[in-house]
Amino acid sequence: MGGIRVVARIRPQQDPKVEGDCIVSADGAEGDAASLPPTMVRIPSIKNENEVYSFQFSNVYDQSSTQQAIFDNEIAPTIKHLFNGFDVTIFAYGVTGSGKTHTMRGGKSLADRGIIPRLLSSTYRRCRRIEKDSAGKTTVEITLSYYEVYNDKVFDLLEAPEKRTATGLQLRDNGGKTVVVGLTERSCESLKEFEKLYDQANVNRSTSATKLNAHSSRSHAVLCFKATVTTGDEVRISTASGTYLRSRVFPVKVVE
Q1: Of 85, 72, 87, 82, which Cα lies nearest the Cα of 177?
Q2: Closest Cα partner for 183 from 219, 224, 218?
Q3: Per-residue pLDDT tens for 100-136?
Q4: What whole-number distance in Å separates Cα of residue 102 and Cα of residue 11?
Q5: Cα gap 39→116, rounded to integer Å
């Protein structure tokens, strides 16, 4: 199994009074049935009002899209592959203030929860179901690591900032994969335990104020969790990675 989907989400205006000034729109390709999800983003030219630029994606979510809809359509179908030994990467990319953190992390209410907590919640439910259906013959272990890339240096977010070294963690090639040497890996047995670790780690992220965001993350963050499925002598290991990057800096892939 392999495949890449690229989807776009249009963030609503922060000030409802200027909602009518929005010029970006989601639309279906010509000939598409009205019932199909939009696949096009259309933006008018600032030089010629009669010209419109169109950009095609796997799916497009407009200003009214919900966290639940994005998760159900784009993320939930990948969970079964994670338990079959395939890796999954979720990559959010955009300018400061475009809604990356909201989409990936979200808020505390159930409706506002982002992709990452929804993914872990679904993963733990599937773990319990697998172990129950196998009458204990299959076990699933979930471990978590979380790091940021800040000023070209890698820092472990599961460790307190005062424990960081000025040079950060080192990167090494391991059979064609880039690994972070010395990165902490924590076992997480429940969603509650994950949320506690995740909240603590996010406090350790590098932030500063910008004109668009008073608490903007200044780093690239990569969350990885590893699922180890064991049935007798058979062991399947796969990872899911979630990252959101600012488009000011060119993206550097340093996932596991």
Answers
A1: 87
A2: 224
A3: 989 999 998 999 999 999 999 999 999 999 999 999 8
A4: 10
A5: 24
